[in-house]
Input
Amino acid sequence: MRTTATHRRTMLAGLALASSVALLSACGTSSGSEGSGEEATSLGEMEGSVSILAWPGYVEDGSNDPTVDWVTPFEEETGCQVTSKSYGTSDEAFSLMKTGDYDVVAASGDASLRLVAAGDVAPVNTDLLKNYDGIFDFLKMQSWNSVDGVSYGIPHGYGANLLMYNTDVFPDGLTSWSAVFDDASANAGKVTAYDSPIYIADAAVYLMATQPDLGITNPYALDETQLAAAVDLLKAQRANIGEYWSDYLKAIQAFETGDSVVGTTWQVIQNYVTTGNTAVVLPDEGTTGWSDTWMISSTAKSPNCAYAWLDYIASPEANAQATAYFGEAPSSLAACDFRDDCEAFHAGDADYASKIWYWSTPIAKCLDGRTDVQCTDYSQWTTAWSEIKG
Amino acid sequence: MTSTPTTARAGDSLTESPARKVSVFLSQHARVRLGLLLSAPLFWLGLVYIAALAALLITAFWTVDSFTGQVQTTWTLDNIITVLTGSLYQTVTLRTVGVALLVTIVDILVALPIAFFMAKVASPRLQRILVIAVLMPLWASYLVKVYAWRSVLSQGGIAEWIAQPFGGSSPGYGLPATIITLAYLWLPYVILPIYAGLERVPNSLLEASSDLGAKTWRTLGSVVLPMLWPAIIAGSIFSFSLSLGDYITVNIVGGANQLLGNLVYTNVGAANNLPLAAAIALIPIAIMVVYLTAARRTGALNNL
Amino acid sequence: MRLSRAARVTLGTVTTLILAVIYLPLFVVFVNSFSTSTNLTWPPPGFTLEWWGKAFQNAGALEGITTSVQIALAATAISLILGTMISLALQRFDFFGRDAVSLLVILPIALPGIVTGIALNNFFRTILDVRLGIATIIVAHATFCIVTVFNNVIARLRRMGTSLEEASADLGAGVWTTFRLVTFPQLRSALLAGGLLAFALSFDEIIVTTFTAGAGVTTLPIWILDNLFRPNQAPIVNVIAVVLVIVSIVPIYLAQRLSGSEQLQK
Output
């Protein structure tokens, strides 16, 4: 079903969204056809409300901390009342989008392609987003936010999965992931790792450097043999793992008390550790990381408010607030004018960014372009991950 | 009674109002009374709960498209076979049942003395205070308590500080920590039925036993325990079933371990594979059905 | 039973020790609510009243409490009605399938929360096609709260016997009048105890709630789950927990008094 709204030109205060005509295919199919839903060519009137699904800390309206609020200005400018729900893992986000209750989702790369394939999100016409231009080029039209040259959203923030270590235990510092893989037994019971199937890619990055014979060229494109090698590596690591983490309070506490001394981490965790005896490094082998994308549901009830949100959250000030609160690099250089910690997050450093393999959903059609083999898909990774944990 | 479709008042009882007629009719027809009493609860439990469970069980025989995440309604036994034959599921099931059993044993061992003290030793005033003291922790959110245990058991935490003078150490994060924390969380649910059960043991009976020359332990073993057994089983249903399905505690204090709840959660919340999750959920369902059937023999279900 | 002095002292000591362990984590929560560490690490590095000040202005937490209280009240009310009906049916009548019904009541609490959670989630979404929200949480909570009311009421009914009700009927009282004037007053404290447990169970439930809550519905446990994971908020969660524990004394104490005085009258 397609609805057409009246033509109208409005200038929105602060947003200055040029808008007119025709609505989105609000009731597009969600039957699983690839890339369902039509791209909007222009915008209509605001619907008055928008429902957002995002990582915790992405949509703050001051109810948690009165000083942290970038939702209220948006509501005042656009008249779109925001309701939001936060999720804990990419997988949870993927499940929640199935309910069709959300207009907008902030998806990491390990969810975005699945959402596109499932027909849960619609293409996004970036011409309608005036803040799209300012976004770092290395974040645009990447494999995790576009399919066949069609954009499916606007980049939000990005970060690297770093290696954190206790400087009392490693006074000379670390430069290699071997501390959590081949040499992990030296700190048996005090090694930590991220608790998600996507962590298999971290092992693959390490194998790319240490076992070139395996021929891995993209950590998200693993055939059966390559996956088996990564699983073996992780099973060996499992014996030395103290705990896996997925919420960062846990990771912060474990490093502060010394229950964990080495393992994968995020920059924000390092920023919050108060004991001062930890350090982070981007190891020589490179690393995995995330680049989140704001996407619009293919069944969005409020597509115009959704576009307005996408543009607003990419505007320098809002983007700076949101990414700073979460602890990641912003999506544009202009946002750094509103942050004083861009340095620590290596924002805009294309060289640093190039060392990061951003989370992508592993699919059967190899992401590295191989056509002679089938790659392992995310469900196989999930099964493998359960088995690694045992 | 509550389902009687009338609003009869005391004053109505003298007049031959329609309500009165219904009342008379009801008092003469016990079956109708029973039917009215049962209808609403059975409608609720049957429609909401049993239908939902049945739907879930059916889902276990379906499959899911791995990339699009859509459930496909083609019949297959794959999920059931995976769960029955996969070594992962066997290991995790054994671990989970082991944890749930240990939690239950710890809870019963802790609940018995405190419930006995409350019911048979403490003065009525102290008794009241103790019941409050036991119930109060229920209100400090589950998550807050689990995180508090995480803090207690951490390196350099209170557990270590207490154990060190005795040459011990904190168990750290892992299965022992999981058992301690779960036992802590469900303790009030075990103490209450046992305490209620003990209150039902008449003091005169205990006195008779000791008058007949039985020693304290003998009285406890051959008089109190048999009478208390149903209450203990009733309490154990809480601790056992609540432990069987938990996945949050083990995530926070369980180190790298996973339990059945985690596997279900991973498959439904994470992998979006409801059919496989439903198949895994059959394991705790089967275990609980066996447990409840066994418990019913002891008459414990009347003592929950 | 005449316990020896030694036995009494031993029991008293063991009870004290157990209570000490029960309150140890709560003590940690209490201390952490004044800690300057936002990460809840032990020992606390310093003392501050900041979190107590912030907690009472925290709109999210207050909203969560309101939502949770609403849900718990509604779920308790439903379970009080259904629980009483089902216990009257099971205790006052003998019929085919009685055992099956009693099993049915216990099932929602006996099956792990995650099973109940995904079953109801699947049911609401794919079969009934209703939007998840407060109503779905209430339905889910009421389902597993029935059992606490049922347990208390049926135990009371068993002890009460039927002589008073029969006398009332013999004197010409109708079914409803007998229930209102004879049965109900005797059940009051059992209903109170059952209702209190049902309320507590619903108020702190998180697993089933996670699966039956929709967007925009934040119960207190969900708020806590969201906020424990983000630095800066964790100590506020502790403040809320401390306040809840202290406030909870009131209803428990009242319930105790009411049922206690009733016992004295008998």
In short: The mean pLDDT of chain C is 83.
